[in-house]
Write a structure and sequence with these properties.
Layout: E1 4-6, E2 22-27, E3 33-37, E4 43-46, E5 52-56, E6 64-69, E7 75-79, E8 84-88, E9 94-98, E10 116-121, E11 127-131, E12 137-141, E13 147-151, E14 164-169, E15 175-179, E16 184-188, E17 194-198, E18 204-209, E19 217-221, E20 238-242, E21 248-252, E22 267-272, E23 278-282, H1 288-291, E24 304-309
Length: 313
């Protein structure tokens, strides 16, 4: 049985700093944790113990959204606000940029990018970009940023999307796309051919692979926000770990939105380190007023969690 406890003291920010929203989290080969957020310091780096190391990106990003770390510890930063993907060193030097800042493609045109959401890498370094708010597709590039192909369109059929919000690629080059508003994860091969889908999810928002062999799929599910089901239990928000067949290994979370241990507002980014601990970043601006309409968002709200994996029982 997999169990987690929360470390509520992990990752103390410098005095006066705020995340505002934590859009994405990623962990490098040394278990350093990169927190891509929408505050004044967009990329904040901690070591595994939670000690602050550095920040960067203050004049680089418009609206943080997705973050992936490659095998060489390069960071692929998806900026929803200016429609770009930037490959950066761990210290913040830009190595590659895909997309033209503040020049989006036409809405739902299928052309890159219109409010892109996340990236994934294949075993040979090809870059896959989910283009999920102003488009409904996935784009594929070479490691050097040369455009190769795209697939997907708005809809509910296999291979179509309704907010492709996150994307990961496993060691066999299968592509997993969090098709958020279709309540499913769709799986493709590296050429974009549909393989299958998993449907036992509620608004899958965040994705990452564990470092186990074979890897497991860690999913951040966002809860309901419609008046008719906003207080319905067992829908989320929560963290789910799935095996490679889509079966549920474990779910963590109360199943209803809230503050405190075991509860989430909107888990938007997830990452796992070498020991199986999970880091969860949350965005709250859109969801908070629906859950707490008469209460301003508190400055001390927890937007970054560390879930410490306990020894298997």
């Amino acid at each position: 049985m997999v169990e987690f406890t929360e470390d509520s003291t992990w990752g103390k920010l410098p005095t006066g700093w705020l995340y505002k929203e934590v859009a994405a989290v990623a962990v490098d080969s040394r278990d350093n944790v990169y927190v891509f957020n929408r505050g004044e310091h967009p990329m904040i780096v901690f070591d595994r113990s939670g000690r602050f190391l550095r920040s960067w990106g203050e004049d680089m990003f418009t609206k943080a959204h997705g973050l992936h770390i490659g095998p060489d510890d390069s960071l692929y930063c998806t900026d929803e606000g200016d429609h770009t993907v930037r490959k950066c060193t761990p210290e913040g030097k830009i190595l590659l940029q895909i997309g033209l800042p503040k020049q989006p493609s036409a809405h739902m045109s299928g052309k890159p990018f219109n409010r892109c959401t996340h990236t994934a890498l294949s075993s040979n370094g090809d870059i896959f970009v989910s283009d999920g708010y102003g488009n409904a597709c996935v784009h594929k590039y070479t490691a050097g940023g040369k455009y190769l192909t795209s697939w997907g369109k708005p809809g509910v059929e296999p291979g179509s999307f309704n907010v492709p919000h996150n994307i990961v690629c496993d060691e066999e080059d299968r592509i997993y796309v969090a098709d958020r508003e279709n309540h499913r994860i769709q799986i493709f091969d590296a050429a974009g051919r549909y393989i299958s889908q998993w449907n036992n999810l509620h608004r899958p928002c965040a994705l990452c692979l564990s470092r186990a062999t074979p890897s497991q799929i860690i999913v951040g599910e966002v809860g309901p926000t419609m008046p008719v089901n906003i207080r319905t239990p067992n829908l989320g928000p929560r963290i789910s770990i799935l095996d490679r067949e889509g079966g549920v290994v474990v779910r963590y979370g109360a199943g209803v939105p809230g503050r405190g241990v075991g509860k989430f507002i909107a888990p938007h980014g997830v990452a796992a380190d070498s020991r199986g601990d999970i880091y969860v970043g949350e965005v709250v601006v859109a969801s908070w007023p629906k859950y707490y309409p008469d209460t301003p968002i508190p400055n001390d709200i927890t937007l970054l969690r560390k879930l410490v994996r306990q020894p298997d029982s």
